[in-house]
Amino acid sequence: MTMDFQYDGHGGLEYITFRGLNGCETARDMKNALELLKIENPLRSFQDRVRAGEFDSTPDDEYEQIASTMKFVSSLWRYPDAQEGEPAQNEMNVLMLLANAVEAAS
User: Fold this and answer.
1) Which region, left, alpha or beta, applies to residue 21 given φ > 0 means left and ψ of -120 to 50 means alpha?
2) For 42-66, how does the pLDDT look when each residue is reduced to its tens digit (9 = 90+)?
3) Average pLDDT over residues 74-94
4) How far is CA 66 from CA 6, 43, 54, 81, 101, in A?
5) Which residues, at least 6 apart from 94, have a Cβ–Cβ distance to it below 8 Å?
6) Is the pLDDT higher at 34 or at 65?
7) Which residue has the higher pLDDT, 35 or 77?
8) Percentage of the chain surpassing pLDDT 90?
9) Is residue 73 classed exposed, middle or buried when 0-12, 13-18 and 19+ CB atoms within 10 A define those classes?
10) Exposed end of the chain (fewer CB within 10 Å): N or C?
């Protein structure tokens, strides 16, 4: 599953959607899927967009806000027992991401 997003005018994320679901899943299918469902860390797609030149005309202060937001979002892709300095995961189970997001919000 992939998280797609755009940036608002303040360096935040908006229009967040997920590719990989078709909307016709049953509750049992969703339960089984949630146990296996992993979402890619959006940092990779951000880095690809940077390399493609998408932000070349973005003012430096706005780009720094976007990069800071991506650094924070990417930090959610870490297991609670990860050692200091250990890189974020490339993908993570959706339930672990939810737990990380709730912890970060609290």
Assistant:
1) beta
2) 998 999 999 999 999 999 999 999 9
3) 89
4) 10, 11, 12, 27, 18
5) 1, 34, 37, 38, 39
6) 65
7) 77
8) 39
9) buried
10) C
Question: Which residues make beta-bridge pairs with 38?
Answer: 93
- Give the span between the Cα atoms of 77 and 91, in whole angstroms: 7
Whose tokens are 């229009």? That residue is: 15
**Six token digits for residue 78:** 């870490």
CA 79 and chain centroid, separation: 14
The three state secondary structure string of the chain is: CEEEEEECCCCCEEEEEEECCCCCCCHHHHHHHHHHCEEECCHHHHHHHHHCCCCCCCCHHHHHHHHHHHHHHHHCCCCCCCCCCCCCCCEEEHHHHHHHHHHHHC
